[in-house]
């Protein structure tokens, strides 16, 4: 294949743009905000789980308190009824039975009130845990929002840079012969560097130093000849910097 030296040199501009696009793609994949976002999302999930657990425990205690209040009210109502009966003038046997029941009710009420006090203390302590869980969730969601903004800003910057390089690439393509461009694009599609500058006996694509014999053949080749690196196969562009 032959191509004008100017066209071959223009190929280096394309390779430079493609190298920049590759770097931008790598930066997109390796953004630290990706890992930060994953960690922040995990923190929010953990905070939500902790809050649900605390709210569930609080709900259970609230139901226990309501049940105990209902049971205490029932005992008090029964006590009031028995006292009313006892004060109304009844037989000795019935009075004895009522007095025994009142003693039993008093013990039951004392037990229920002790249990109620214990549950209310647990509920009060859990209130602090609930407040803490809500604060942790709010802070986690704020952190998630902040890292999301940073990630989106970084991606927007990369989008703008990639759009610029893509426009640069499109401007270069019309300057290249179809057969030369096709060969370059075939290598580029495989993830390989399509072209490199020969400088100081090294290929600009693979950075390897080339053999003297091979360099001799390059020196003898016509400027229009399209040559390839013997190490990586990239199109090797010769300019005044090549030292041939």
From TrEMBL:
Domain named C4-type zinc ribbon: residues: 202-236
Pfam families found in the cross-reference section: CT398_CC, Zn_ribbon_9
UniProt xrefs under InterPro entries: CT398_CC_hairpin (IPR056003), Oxidative_Scav/Glycosyltrans (IPR052376), Zf-RING_7 (IPR003743)
Record's keyword terms, sorted: Coiled coil
Domain CT398-like coiled coil hairpin: 14-191
Keyword Flavoprotein appears in the UniProt entry: no
UniProt keyword Coiled coil, yes or no: yes
Coiled coil: 51-115
Full protein name: Uncharacterized protein
